[in-house]
C-alpha cells in the first residue's frame, strides 16, 4: 500500500530513545559510527547473497558508503548500496527491539544516569543513536531486487511514533537523512565528519566516500594579459568523490600497522558493543588450511549470555567476503561470549549452511581458534591479573562449562578456573587449582571441596570443622554449575577431587597414638547410642556412624561415597527429576 501510515513505537523503544539521548549526550558523535556500521553490515549481507544471485547487484557492484552534509538544510546524509530493507523489515527492525535480553535490560535500569549509560552501552545503541543529534530522521530504503517503485520511507521525530510510506527509489540500499537539532550544527563540517570517521570507522573495509570540498581558489582574478574570457564566470566546481577511510579489511593488516584504537573500534563494530574490549588475539594461521582470526573478550557479559537462542559472536568470512554471523560451529558453547571474525582462505565461496556444518576444515579451524582463545586467556591471567579477575567475575560460570563440554582441552580450562576457598573465606574467586595443590599439606593427596547452594552455606558447612582445625584448605563451591563441574572434573594434576561431605575421610594426616586411643574409647561409649538413633531413623538413612570430623556441631548428614551429593539432589529436584 502506498498510503502513508502512522505507527507507534514499541514502549521499550520510547524508553530507550529517551534514555539514550540523555545518557549518551557527552559521546554524541557515535551516531556516525553506528550508522556507518549498519551500512557496512548491509553491504556484507548483499555481497553474500550476490554470490549465488549476482542479479542483485543491478549492474552496480561497487559497494560503498556515502556521506554528505548540507549546511543550508541542516542535514547529514548517510547512504549505502547494500541489501536494503522491505517495508516489513523496516517495521520489524526500526520500530521494535527484537533483541534478546531486552527485559533484563529494562529491569536492570536504576535511574542513575552514570550507571544506566553504561548499561545502555552493553545493550547496544545502534540505529536509534541518530536521535541524539537529530530531531527528525528520514530513512528511505529499497531491498536489492525489489522494483524501484517499491521502496519504503520511514520518518520519525524520535518521540512516540513514526510514519511509513511506499515510495520510489532508483538505487537499491538505504539512505538516512538526519535533520540535525539546531544546537548540533557543529556536525555540518567536512573536517569534523572526516575526523570522526577516522577515529571510529577507519577499519570499515568498504570505501566511505565524501565529495571533495572545493579548495579555496586563489586565481579568481585572471592574470594580466590572460585572454580567457570564461575565467570571469566561475565554472561549476567539478565534484570529486574521495575515500576518507583506509578501506581495507583490518584483520588483513599486520599487527604493527594496527593501533589499539583501531582494534577497539573494530570490536565495537563486530561486537555491536559500546565499550572497549578486555583483550584480543589476532593471528594468521598458515598451512594447507589457512585462516586469519581476530577474536575479542568483551569487558562485560552481554545481557543474553544465558539465553540459549542468543546469536553467536564470531563472524565467518571467506577471503574477506562475509558469509555468516550465525556460525555456531566456529566456537564451542562455553566460549559463546567471544566476538570477532574468522576469515578462512581455503573454503569455497559458495558454501552453504549444510556444508559448513559438515566441513572438516571448519572443525579444524574451530579447534585452532579455541586454542588461540585459551592462549589469550592464559596470557591475560598471567600478565594482567586484575583484568583476568574482572573477566572471571562476569564469565567464570560460563568457563566452568568448558570442563564439561571440551574434553580435549579439559586440563587447560581447569587451569583457568578460579575458586573461593577457606584460605581467605572471601566470596572473590581467585584461587587456582595449581595454587591449591602447591599449598597442600604434607601427606595430603586430595583436593577437598564443599558444595552448597550459597556461599554462606558453603563457608559455614559443619563438614569444614575438622579441616579448619587441621589447617587443610577446602574449596568453597556455590555457583549453580559447580555440582556438574566436580562430577566432570574428578582429578587435577593427579590429585583426586574429594567432597568433604562424602563417605569416609582419610585426611592423610597421621593421628597420634593418643588420639587413636581416645577415639576408640569414644566409639565404645557410643555404640548403644548409635543403635538407638538407627532404630528411630529407620530407612530414612542408610547408616549412622560416629564421626571424628566434627569439632563443634553435634551431627551432620553425609552422602555415600558413590551416592549423589545432597546439593546435587537439590539441583535434580529443582530440575524436576
Ligand atoms: P544492530 O546493528 O546491532 O542489529 P541497529 O539498531 O544498529 O542494531 O540496527 C537494527 C537493524 O536494522 C539491523 O540489524 C538491520 O537489520 C537494520 N538496518 C539498520 N540499518 C540498515 C541499513 N543501512 N541497511 C539495511 N538494514 C539496516
Ligand atoms: Mg548496528
From TrEMBL:
Keywords: ATP-binding, Chaperone, Cytoplasm, Nucleotide-binding, Stress response
Chain intervals for the UniProt region annotation (A): 1-353
This protein's GO CC annotations: cytoplasm
Compositionally biased intervals (Acidic residues): 218-228
SMART domains hit by this protein: HATPase_c
Single GO term (MF): ATP hydrolysis activity
Signal peptide: none
Residue span, Histidine kinase/HSP90-like ATPase domain: 27-184
Parts forming coiled coils: none
Localization annotation: Cytoplasm
Main location class: cytoplasm
Sites where the protein binds ATP: 34, 38, 80, 85, 99-101, 122-127, 174, 353
Region named Disordered: 215-235
Family recorded in the similarity comment: Belongs to the heat shock protein 90 family.
Its biological purpose: Molecular chaperone. Has ATPase activity.
NCBIfam families linked: PRK05218.1 (NF003555)
Binding partners and assembly: Homodimer.
Protein name: Chaperone protein HtpG
Organism field: Methylovulum psychrotolerans
Lineage: Bacteria, Pseudomonadati, Pseudomonadota, Gammaproteobacteria, Methylococcales
